[in-house]
Amino acid sequence: MTPPQRQRRSPQDGPPPQPAGPAKKKGEGGNPERLYVVAGPDGERADIDLVTLIVARSPDPPPSATPEQAALLRLCVAPLSVAELSAYLSLPFSVVTVLLTEMLTAELVQARSPIVRKALPDRSLLEAVMHGLQRL
């Protein structure tokens, strides 16, 4: 069996075919310049965590909103965490926090911190319950 022979191409044939590799997801290995344009040159960030809940004050985006900000407002009709927004928009967490910072200063969205439960209950409360049960 003979191996396949390579054929020479002339310069007017066009670009070489792209190798058939695994398809990239939207946002993976994307253009870093695009993320800079989306996030803006300032890059200022509010104190937002992955589990901070974001709610839109109005579902209708203003005319000056970017497409990413409009998508955020449409998604945030119901409270969503920043991690969920990042996943739905296929944008990195850092870019989403910069977008949300701009929207928080413009009062388009409201940030709610998650409810944190205490790890251990109060000892005096447990002792009072224990003494109450012993009296029964």
The quaternary state of the protein chains shown equals single chain
Low-confidence stretches: 24-28
Helix vs. strand class: mainly alpha
Enumerate how many helices there are, as a single number: 5
- SSE order: HEHEHHEH
Largest sheet: 3 strands, antiparallel
Name the overall outline.
elongated
Rg from alpha-carbon coordinates: 26 Å
Helical content band: 25-40%
Determine the strand fraction and express it as a percent band. 5-15%
Give the end-to-end Cα distance, rounded to a whole number of Å.
93 Å
Average pLDDT level: 76
Q: Which sequence of strands runs across the widest sheet?
A: 2-1-3
Structural topology:
Elements: H1 32-39, E1 53-56, H2 67-75, E2 80-81, H3 82-89, H4 93-105, E3 109-112, H5 123-135
Antiparallel strand pairs: 1-2, 1-3
